[in-house]
């Protein structure tokens, strides 16, 4: 299944919509992500989550990576696979799982591609894990990046994809958890973990944000305006943080 060809709204689509409305440089993930960084991130995820396709993918990506980055990639893989928690769920989870769902508030058809999702044998519990490379050097810095990069919106969007999945696959699931794993891109290559579902208000705030942008998406579809006609900035956006 070609995920990009599925005609539904993804969390990445909402990021692009936000960039269009607030200005590209107002979004930290866009402001600081160079093409080289994006290439490295793609190679990292392919190597970790889809090892069966590593040969083909890395043939395409590694020429764009400096030799130092290729070594760095191998080091990050080793760091994650040596961690007992990560190793366990890499083995037990479905990787790169595509979930189709409909947001019950807006009626918009959505899609999500989850790094890893583990469902307990009796389907009572579900754990979603998302792995990020990070420049953070402390747990506190990684936690702050979860707010800076709209990870709260991503976590809410992904958890709700399971709750409202089109085929009711997780209909009997009672507990949903979402954990971000951050791996430092520099020495000493530490791992950080943030249980997003344990932070008061984190998921609820992220849900408000993604539904705000879904409404924007629906309004623009209904008005049938072209992308060039969209407003380039919003002066009173309810989720825009003031420095």
Automatic annotation (TrEMBL):
<dbReference type="InterPro" id="IPR011604">
    <property type="entry name" value="PDDEXK-like_dom_sf"/>
</dbReference>
<feature type="domain" description="Putative exodeoxyribonuclease 8 PDDEXK-like">
    <location>
        <begin position="39"/>
        <end position="215"/>
    </location>
</feature>
<dbReference type="InterPro" id="IPR024432">
    <property type="entry name" value="Put_RecE_PDDEXK-like_dom"/>
</dbReference>
<dbReference type="Pfam" id="PF12684">
    <property type="entry name" value="DUF3799"/>
</dbReference>
<protein>
    <recommendedName>
        <fullName>Putative exodeoxyribonuclease 8 PDDEXK-like domain-containing protein</fullName>
    </recommendedName>
</protein>
